[in-house]
Design goal:
single chain, 301 residues, alpha/beta, D-Maltodextrin-Binding Protein, domain 2, six-stranded mixed beta sheet, three-stranded parallel beta sheet
């Protein structure tokens, strides 16, 4: 009996021993062992990650992760398969946290709350929360053209602003229009449809994503305007990856600061020649408080 107990206990130790390396394995160790890098991609986050007419993923973030992949092959001196796995706005952070994916680079705002669950890279893009309105409503709805007293006197229900649940818009932008009627949206696609049909007055979201939605639906950019011209609340996007992976994070950061990524960024966002021209905000501007006054700047289109 004692011999059987001893053998069983020894077998248990061996089993646990074989599991420990897997539990403690870093992303780089796993990729080197399996030859597979799994990244999360969104289907609806134009111009960062989206599904095109051929049902293939494209966007700046997709190409950034492809760049990380190619540089990693050089670093590890071996062939690595890049696996694209769809994620959503609801499960993007949990997919990284539970190890379903090794990396997500997309429209993911760097926040203290999410840093409790995942690691963030250095920022690769800065945008801000703005309102998308029809051109004729700019003067009526631009918060920078109204005094604080005028904003507070807006009668409840007179201005309908829609936003997407699960984003930072609710906490960062709603206080600017405390008396507006804020309505939940399922998607920016739904929001633009409701804006065109005058069911709502504005859509609140990250400016660059609103531009992407207009492009996706083939609408005339001149019919709409992002207000205010300079965002009142800035958002830094960073890649997200599992905690306790400092070497992996350093490698991602080195790719973001590389000359190859600078060239890639310009191809997508250069204000004169990019596919989605967008103003590149300075670090000082982006780090300003969301409620600190801004100076008027040129329109984004």
């Amino acid at each position: 009996m004692n011999t059987k107990i001893t053998i069983s206990f020894f077998s248990l130790l061996l089993t646990v021993g074989f599991q420990l390396p897997s539990l403690a394995e870093t992303v780089l160790e796993k990729v080197n062992r399996t030859g597979v890098l799994t990244v999360g991609v969104r289907e609806d986050s134009i111009p960062f990650s989206y599904s095109n007419e051929s049902n293939n993923f494209e966007g700046y973030s997709v190409e950034l992760m492809q760049l990380i992949h190619s540089r990693l092959e050089q670093e590890l001196n071996r062939s690595i398969r890049l696996q694209l796995k769809p994620v959503t706005i609801q499960n993007r952070f949990s997919s990284v946290e539970n190890g379903t994916v090794d990396l997500v680079c997309g429209a993911d705002s760097i926040t203290i709350e999410q840093e409790q669950r995942v690691e963030f890279s250095i920022p690769f893009f800065t945008t801000g929360i703005q309102l998308l309105v029809q051109q004729e409503d700019v003067e009526r709805l631009d918060p920078t053209l109204r005094t604080e007293e005028e904003l507070e006197q807006i009668a409840p229900g007179n201005i309908l602003i829609a936003f997407i649940q699960g984003t930072t818009t609710e906490t960062n932008f709603k206080p600017i229009y405390p008396e507006a009627d804020w309505q939940l949206l399922g998607s920016r696609t739904e929001g633009l449809r409701r804006l065109k049909s005058n069911e709502i007055d504005a859509i609140a979201s990250d400016g660059i994503l609103l531009i992407g939605e207009i492009w996706k639906q083939g609408e005339d950019m001149k019919s709409y305007r992002l207000i205010p011209q300079e965002p009142l609340s800035f958002e830094n996007y960073g890649c997200i990856f599992p905690q306790k992976n400092l070497d992996w994070g350093s490698f991602i950061n080195s790719t973001i600061t590389s000359a190859e990524n600078t060239e890639l960024w310009d191809q997508w966002f250069n204000s004169e020649t990019g596919r989605f021209p967008y103003e590149r905000f300075s670090d000082d501007t982006a780090n300003r408080s969301s409620l600190e006054p801004t100076q008027p700047r040129r329109a984004l289109w």
